[in-house]
Amino acid sequence: MVLVCYILTLAWNSSIILLSLVDPRLQTPMYFFLDNLSLLDLCITCTIKGRLLANLCGSDKTITACGCISHFCLFHWTSCTECPLLAMMAIDHYVAICWPLQYTLIMCPWVCMQMAAACWSSRLSNALLQAILTIQLPLSGHHILDHFFCEIPVLIKLACGDTSANDLAQALGAMFFALLAPIVVLISYTLIARAVLKFPSAEERHKALSTCSSHLLVVSIYFGPGIYMYLQPPAHSTQSKFMSFFYCIITPVLNPLIYNLRNKDVKKAWKRIVQSQGGVQSLKDRHKIQN
């Protein structure tokens, strides 16, 4: 199952990025953020599933302390970057629906790049802070990691010293993760709903809602397991491992599938590519017949 999810995640997320690069109609702010989301899913896949497959297939399941810290630093950076990125995507939908005439002016390429850079850099700084604090914990000797990848709460449990600084940093990071970004999403969609209800025609309302449906579904899949995983009591280790598995293995597969199946622009882009390839092949066949 892990291998199948690994292959599908690589194929589907890479296809979305390549599709937006080759099709000029998809080179918009919405698909710019979608490309960033696909890139994050690829990073999570290579970080978690690659190591998990190595543990499942190989006999040596050990990892050094530095390797484990590097592993969770990469995971923490990429996975938590999705949190503010989804909030930025909600803001993009708000501007597109509530300010359609000023949309291209407000969401210009420079603004989109700044928003994406803020998402990546803010979570990188937090991941480095967590890594520095974890390095200072006494983790000498051999330990059994009761998880399928290196994660901060699991490593903190292995420490035999004072972990108050780590707990505080984790709580502050979880506060941003569980409160600020969902609040931005909630406010954005509240304003979108108020604007949509004022649309004169049912067709316009349906078009606006269909634009947001894929993002709302991805937000629900992301924040649900994520908030549950980071805010539940530490005693429920089995549930925590299951939610981590769902979030790290299943979610990166579902995201591109949701946008591929529910997005008309993506479907049309795929059709144009298939038709263009069919046209090129027919021209080649005609040329061979004439020769």
From TrEMBL:
Q: Does the keyword Cell membrane apply?
A: yes
The residues that cross the membrane are: 172-197, 209-230, 242-261
Coiled-coil region list? none
Topology in the lipid bilayer: Multi-pass membrane protein
Instruction: Tell me the keywords, alphabetical order.
Output: Cell membrane, G-protein coupled receptor, Glycoprotein, Membrane, Olfaction, Receptor, Sensory transduction, Signal, Transducer, Transmembrane, Transmembrane helix
Q: Read off the InterPro entries from this record.
A: GPCR_Rhodpsn_7TM (IPR017452), Olfact_rcpt (IPR000725)
Q: What CDD domains would the database entry show?
A: 7tmA_OR2B-like
**Record GO terms (molecular function):** G protein-coupled receptor activity; olfactory receptor activity
Protein's cellular compartments? Cell membrane
Where is the major localization of this protein?
Answer: membrane
What family does the Swiss-Prot or TrEMBL record give for this protein? Belongs to the G-protein coupled receptor 1 family.
Q: Which PANTHER family match?
A: OLFACTORY RECEPTOR
Q: What is this protein called?
A: Olfactory receptor 2B11
User: What is the organism of origin for this protein?
Assistant: Heterocephalus glaber (Naked mole rat)
